[in-house]
Amino acid sequence: MDITDRKRIEAERQHAKDSLQKERECLRAILDNLTDGIVACDENGHLMLFNHVAREFHGVAEATLPPNQWTEHFDLYLADGVTPMPTHEIPLFRAFQGEQVHEFEMVIAPKQGKTRALLASGRAFFDAAGNKAGAVVAMHDISDRKQAEAALRKAMQESDYQSRLLRTILDSTQDWIFAKDKEFRYILASRSYAEALNQSIDSLLGKDDLELGFSITQVFGNPDVGIRGFRNDDQAALAGEVIRNPYDPATVSDGSTRIFDTSKVPLYDSDGNIFAMLGSSRDITDRHNTEAALRNSEAALKEKASELEETLQTLRLTQAQVIQAEKMSSLGQLVAGIAHEINNPVNFIYGNLSPIREYAADLLHLLELYQTQSPQPDSEIQAFTEAIDLRFLKQDLPKLIDSMKMGTERIREIVLSLRNFSRLDEAEVKEVDLHTGIDSTLVILGNRLKPTPDRPAIQVVKQYGNLPLVECYAGQLNQVFMNILSNAIEAIEEKIQKQAEATAVNGKGAHCAVLTAQTAPGTITIRTQLVESNQVQICIADNGLGMSAEVQQRLFDPFFTTKPVGQGTGMGLSISYQIVAERHGGSLTCHSEPGQGTEFTIQIPVEL
Q1: Which stretches make up the PAS domain (predicted)?
Q2: Contacts of 67 (CB under 8 A, 6+ apart)
């Protein structure tokens, strides 16, 4: 071979070498720009090729390793992402063994990198002589698809959960829940609604109201008699209206009529189009009855209040009759009859007030329970609640009952005074030391005699004579002493108060110390003596405000009082007069001058 041939052969060899290099570079460029990862091994099973994507998948560079080291080095796992992949499961190993691998699911979880789910496909390749030259595997990243599938499964699970939750709610609620399509056929119903129609849920779905046994009048109404049918409200809801009917009577399966609060609203699909209507009906019969009972209770309470007012008016009329009586004996008989006649209705009213309060409290509590269970009532109920001022009604009703109770207790006290006045309560007659009774009364009133921030102590001067034991009704005489002494204390306090007010008006100051120094201390003087050998006389005098002649003329009249309303019954001195004059055959007189004080004189026989 001459040099020319040798150069030509070398040139051809170099050209072939250059062409092969270009092909390799072209192949590398193609492999590195593929979106799939490509790995290959040679005829000895050693890795020989990792394209750019494969290196990114594994997070490591290609390395010439035997198959038994591929799993650990390249972080290969089965589809569960947890189980390391056995060598015989590795797609490249299987392809090298002659198996054609098709979309085998696997996971690559590099320690430094992103975990990916892949589909691997591959097979062996051969040289021109038919000898196995190696194997190649392509790996397609399906991580996004797997995430989408997981999201879909989760959505389906949530949808199934929501469906089961909705069904549970519909099976559990006592409200009637239903939905109808545009053909007015049921597409949804709660169990309570189906049971009310004597239907199963399955038998109800797909039917309209007529097929379920509702009458034509119930479905379509009768405008001539003002009946609005189901269909009218259904059509309105399907047209986009929101229907509220807070008072909706309906006949249930047992034939009884119940009152419902019904609402119907349109249902929209994802495109905003109405495809059905949803209805709900809540049984408010018990609440309606409770409210009616509460209204009736209010009416009954008002009626009782009216009766009480009439009783008080009767009492005032009785007072006028008593005041006009000319003789105390006839007055006693009259008052006895009045006390008896008033006592019965007052006791009846008084005895019913506690049950009425309990009933009203129960009704109010039941109403609060309904409000708790239905915290968002419809607009009509809310408007009516505001119109009647339910909050005020609930607060004022117990106060009304309490005021009635106070009124009846007041009447009972007056009746008791009348009973005492008319000798309905008898006491044992016995000989007593009147001084002991007076002293006991002063002990009881001791706290009222003590000094206060507004006045000094009230002094009591005792000028007791030598009295024999007196045959009398001791308890009743003690009541006389109590009434007269109480009035004396009040007269002294009233005088001191008026002096303080006058001092303040004149600019002299009303300080307690100044008032105490300038005001004579209140004094009550009690004198006793034996007169005419068979009469005892008790005089009780005070240096209080005194009274006019007009007041003295009415002083012993029943119900007469100069005290503000609620601070006196006007029976104290009247009863005292009855005790002294009627019970003991004595006399009770009064002498007073305005601003100079008052003196009461009691005179009774030693023996009855």
Answers
A1: 23-65
A2: 41, 45, 87, 90, 92, 93, 96
Helix/strand/coil (H/E/C) assignment for every residue in 497-541: HHHHHHHHHCCCCCCHHHHHHHCCCCEEEEEEEEECCCEEEEEEE
Give Cα separations from 109 to 64, 80, 106 (angstroms).
20, 11, 10
**pLDDT (0 to 100) of residue 85:** 92
**Can you tell me which residue has the tokens 């399509």?**
181
Please give the pLDDT value at position 516: 46
**Which residue pairs from 95-101 have beta carbons closer than 8 angstroms and sit at least 24 positions apart in sequence?**
95/122, 95/123, 95/124, 95/135, 95/136, 95/137, 96/41, 96/45, 96/67, 96/124, 96/134, 96/135, 97/124, 98/124, 98/132, 99/123, 101/137
Q: Rounded to an integer, what distance in angstroms lies between the CA atom of residue 423 and that of residue 582?
A: 9
Residue 375 confidence (pLDDT)? 80
- Complete edge-to-edge strand list for the sheet that includes strand 186-189: 186-189, 176-181, 274-283, 257-268, 243-251
Return the pLDDT at 325. Answer: 37
- Distance, in Å, from the CA atom of 282 to the CA atom of 175, rounded to the nearest integer, reads 5
Q: Which of 502, 507, 514, 506 is nearest to 454 (CA)?
A: 514
Helix axes 390-421, 285-324, angle to 10 degrees: 30
Reference 113, options 37, 34, 32; nearest CA is 37
Which sign does the torsion angle of CA 228, 234, 237, 238 carry? Answer: negative
Q: What sign for the dihedral angle of Cα 165, 170, 171, 174?
A: positive
| Beta carbons of 545 and 594 less than 8 angstroms apart | yes
Q: What is the gyration radius of the CA atoms in the chain, in angstroms? A: 54
User: Cα dist. 279→182, 187, 215, 452 in Å?
Assistant: 14, 11, 19, 73
Asked if 592 and 552 touch (Cβ cutoff 8 Å), the reply is yes
Taking a C-beta distance cutoff of 8 angstroms, is the pair 592, 575 a contact?
no
Q: How far is CA 255 from the centre of its chain?
A: 35
| Rounded distance between C-alpha atoms, residue 498 and residue 546, angstroms | 12
**How far is it, in rounded angstroms, from Cα 446 to Cα 142?**
102
The confidence score (pLDDT) of residue 335 equals 55
Q: What is the model's pLDDT at position 259?
A: 85
Q: 367 with 290: CB under 8 angstroms?
A: yes
Q: From the CB of residue 450, how many other CB atoms can be counted at a distance below 10 Å?
A: 10
Residue in this structure with the two tokens 């499961």, named with its chain if needed? 89
What the block records as the tokens of 525 is 């003087």
Please provide the DSSP assignment of 191-210 as one string. Answer: HHHHHHTT--HHHHTT--TT
Q: Which residues of the chain have pLDDT under 50?
A: 317, 320-321, 323-332, 420-426, 509-517
Confirm if 527 and 477 have CB atoms less than 8 A apart. Answer: no
Collapsing DSSP states into helix, strand and coil, what is residue 325? coil
The CA-CA-CA angle for residues 380, 383, 386, to 5°, reads 150
pLDDT, position 568 = 61
Q: Dig out the tokens for 342 from the structure.
A: 């008033």
> What pLDDT score does 65 carry?
73
3-state helix, strand, coil in the chain (%, to 5): 50, 20, 25
